[in-house]
Amino acid sequence: MDIEKIRDAVDSRFDSWEIYYHKEREKKFETKERQICGIEIKEEEGVALRALKDHRMAFTYTYDQDNAPELLLKNALALMPLMERDDDRFFPEKQGEYPAFSLYDDESLKIDDEQKTSLLIDMESVIRDYDKRIVTVRNCELQEIEFMTKIINSKGLTAEGSKTLYVISAYCVAKDEDEVSWYDWSWSHTLKELEWEKLAKSIAEKTISFLSGKQIDTGIYEGILAPQAACDILGILSDAFLAENLYKNKTRLKGKDNTKCFSGNLTIIDSGAHGIESFSFDGEGMPTQENLVVERGHFETFLYDSYYGQKCGFMSTGNSTRSGIKEPPKCGPRGMFIKQGERDISNVLSNGIVIEELMGTHTANTITGDFSLGAGGFIYKNRVKTPFQGVIFSGNVFELLRNVKEVGNDLKFYGVFGSPSLFIEGIKISGK
Description:
This protein is an alpha+beta fold. The protein folds into 2 domains: 3-208, 2-Layer Sandwich (PmbA/TldD fold); 214-432, no CATH class. The chain is 19% helix and 39% strand. It is built from 9 helices and 20 strands. A 6-stranded antiparallel β-sheet has the order 3-2-1-4-5-6. Helix 1 (3-10) packs parallel to helix 2 (68-79). The chain is globular, with a radius of gyration of 24 Å. 40% of the residues are buried.
C-alpha cells in the first residue's frame, strides 16, 4: 500500500491529518487427539485516516490497496460536515527518539511448521498423560502473529515498528465423581521463550486438583488471589485510572492525587514496555513511557492520551490504544501491573482460601468498584487443601485493595494486565 500517495491525496484538503498503516499475518495451529486438526492463515493490510478541518475530525479506513487514496479522501470529506466541532482535537508534534525494544524475532519465523506442530502435539500429550482422569483436551492452539505498524501525521511525526508474538493455550477437562475444567494460556515474543511444557503441566495439575470441589461456608476469609484472578481485579480497577473517566466524572479517584487510596503494599505501574501489547509507541505515535500510577498505596497519576490530556491540562502519558484500523485510538492501559514483592507467599496460609478463577468480571461496576463474581479455588484448614466451587465472591475493588497484606513474587501477565499473588484480608464469600 502506497502511503505516500495517500499523503499526497489528503495533504492539501485538511487542516491536519494522521495516517495509520497496519499489516498483519497470523498463523494458527490446533491439535485434537494428538494430531493437527487445523492450520489457519489470516493476512490483512489496511490503512486508517483521521482528518481535521475547522476543528471537526473525521475517521475512515480501508483495506482496498489499489484505491486507498481516493476512498479515504472521499469518505473523510463526506463525513466531515456531520462531525461536531471540538477545539481540543489535534495531532501530536514530531517526537524525538523512541525506546528500543526486542519485540521482533526473525529466527522464530524461519522455524518450519513441522517443528511448531510437533511442539503443540507434545504439549497436548503432556496434558493428556498427566492423569487418566483427564478425558478431554480442547483448544490446544499455537498462534504466530507478525505485524508492522506505521503512523505519520501532518505535524512531522513518523513512528514505525514491527513485532512477533506467540500465544499458546489449552482447555482441559477431567472427570471422576464430578467433571471439572481449566483453561490457561501464555505468550512470548519468541518461540524459544514460550514455556509450553511448564504451561501444559500447570493446566493438567490444576484441572485434577479441582476434582471433588464443594461449596464452602458463607463468611469473611483471609486468603490469596492467584495471579489470574488478581489480573481480573486489576482489570476492573483500571478504568478508574483513565483520563477519559476523569473528564467524564466516572472515577472515584477524582481529586485523590497524592492520597493514600490503597494498601501501602501496592505499587501499580502502567508501561507500554510490558504486557502482550508492548510496543515502542502508542496508538497515535507518542513514545512509550513508564507511569507510576500508585506508589505504596498512594494514587499518583491518571493516564492520558493526547486528547484527554488536552482537555484536562496534562501531557500525554503514552496511553493511546488501538485495536486495529477499524476503530480510532482511545485512552486505555498499555501494560498495567502490580509490582511484585520479594518472596513466595503460596505457602503462608494455614487457614484461609486461595481464589484461582473469577467468572463474570464484565458485570462489575467500574465506576463504583462494586462486584459480585463467581469464584473457584481452594480452602485451607490446618494446612489441608481442599477445592471449592460454586460460590460468589463479592465486595468493592477499592476496599479489597486496601486490605492487601502482602504481595508475592510470582508476577504474571494476562494480556495487558499483570499481577503476582495477593494476600488479602476480608474476602467476602457467599456459599452454603
